[in-house]
Amino acid sequence: MDIKAKLSTLWLFATLNYLYADVVGLMNPGLLRQYLTGTVNGVHFSQAFLLGASVLIEIPIAMVLLSRVLKYAPNRWANVIAGTIMTVVQFATLFLGTPASYYIFFSVLEILTTSLIVWYAWRWHQA
To answer: How far is it, in rounded angstroms, from Cα 114 to Cα 98?
Structure first.
């Protein structure tokens, strides 16, 4: 598998995990009640917050495509930067309140995947 396909596939895997972690969160009755009030674990879901969350999840979604179409140098750096951002953000979310076991499970997978993306991109040398 070439590196572009590998990176794109890893971004797809990470994205599906981000999305399904959110779906499972909606199945958690305690969290669902909080979602319905607009405040989850003390965080108010304002329009600005929702826009920020939308921009954040757009990073891995866009990287599925960008990993395939960008030329070597911008591709490599986009993967390093986006992977680093998503790794740091996901790691930080583990310290917001007390995460549920399913959330920790998904977070570990997501952190490992985005760290692997950074590692592959960092080691990627143009042939």
So the answer is: 23
